[in-house]
Amino acid sequence: MDTDVTVTVDGRQHRLTVDTRTTLLDLLRERLGNTSPKKGCDHGQCGACTVLLDGERALSCLALAVAHDGAEVTTADGLAPEGELHPVAQAFVDADAFQCGYCTPGQVCSAVGVLAEVGRGWPSHATGDLTAAPELTSDEVAERMSGNLCRCAAYANITPAVLRAGGARA
Which range (25-34, 59-68, 109-118, 159-168) has the least confidence? Predict the structure, then answer.
């Protein structure tokens, strides 16, 4: 069964007719040609498809497009103006926090989400004192980024990149 959906992707609105089984990831990649989010596992286990969905990080392979009619989707491509790098992406470059680059767009979107969550005071499993605002520490970043896998094992540089982007010491 097909239905019409409207999504705003990286600031540009799109109205499409999609099969009701179409994932947000497939809509982005196959219908809109946005190859920033990657299809890694297609089961929500690797994080390569991470985008910001209405400002919060989400696994686009698990999100049905019809469930997000009217949503605003930001991919790594849409985080900064054309020709510029978002501060988190720049921190990844500066910290050499990638190797093959396949997972990098998802890692960057997740890191932007992590910094927003910490900024809002949302605790994680690694937060020691649930009554205080969480501090941006290596343990906090590692816990929050644990849903994003890197087969090249660039973790040693990803955590410092997120810390750098958040203004903390690496």
Answer: 159-168
Q: What is the model's pTM?
A: 0.95
Length of the chain: 170
How many contiguous H segments (helices) and E segments (strands) does the chain have?
5, 5
pLDDT one-digit tens code per residue, 97-152: 999 999 999 999 999 999 999 999 999 999 999 999 999 999 999 999 999 999 99
Angstrom distance (rounded) from CA 94 to CA 164? 9
What residues does 78 pair with on adjacent strands? none
Contact (CB, 8 A) for 45 and 103: no
User: Which pair of structure tokens corresponds to residue 63?
Assistant: 């999100």
Q: How many CA atoms lie within 13 A of 95 on its CB side?
A: 24
Nearest to 104 by CA among 170, 27, 19, 161: 161
**How many Å apart are CA 72 and CA 169, to the nearest integer?**
32
Residue 159: is its pLDDT beyond 70? yes
Task: Give me 16's structure tokens.
Answer: 């499409």
Tell me whether residue 26 is exposed, middle or buried, using C-beta atoms within 10 angstroms of its C-beta: 0 to 12, 13 to 18, 19 or more. Answer: buried
